[in-house]
Amino acid sequence: LLAICGVRGEEAPGNAALEHALFVSNHVSWLDIFVINALHPCRFVAKAEIRAWPVLGWLVAAAGTVFIARGNRRELRHIFKGIVSVLGEGERVAFFPEGTVAQQGQVLPFHANL
Questions:
Q1: Phi-psi region for residue 72, left (φ > 0), alpha (ψ -120 to 50) or beta?
Q2: Cα torsion at 50, 53, 58, 59 (round to 10°)?
Q3: Which residues lie closer than 8 Å to 111 by C-beta, 6 or more apart?
Q4: Positive/negative CA dihedral, 4, 36, 110, 48
Q5: In Å, how far from its chain's centre is CA 56?
Q6: Mapped to the 3 state alphabet, what secondary structure does the chain carry?
């Protein structure tokens, strides 16, 4: 997909292989997910509603996504346990605290549950 879109990712020289890493990034485009995953395969945190989306919901669930119920503070323990479990398995986790794609050059408020 990245090649089709003309996107090429490069790592900075000297970066060691990252395990048990937590990536936090602004969500600039839907390609963010593919770029991060191409450079450092990882599991993502996503809003629970995505699980119900046709086709995409199945794909992201099959990829081991950690789903969260945004706006539900009681979910914080579940979110934390899910992320800790994935990191404990030696995998990487990535999330976008803005919770949605922002317009270029704009930073949105972070979601409280993230």
A1: beta
A2: -70
A3: 70, 71, 97, 98, 99
A4: positive
A5: 14
A6: CCCCCCCCCCCCCCCCCCCCCEEECCCCCCHHHHHHHHHCCCEEEEEHHHHHCCCHHHHHHHCCCEEECCCCHHHHHHHHHHHHHHHHCCCCEEECCCCCCCCCCCCCCCCCCC
Domains in the chain: boundaries: 22-95
In the block, which residue shows the tokens 């030696």?
90
The tokens describing 25, both together, are: 């990034």
The β-bridge partners of 24 are 95
What are the distances in angstroms from CA 25 to CA 4, 35, 38, 58, 59?
A: 23, 12, 15, 24, 22
What is the value of pTM for the model shown? 0.73
Tokens at residue 31, please? 């390609």
pLDDT tens digits along 13-54: 666 667 778 888 877 777 788 888 888 888 998 888 999 999
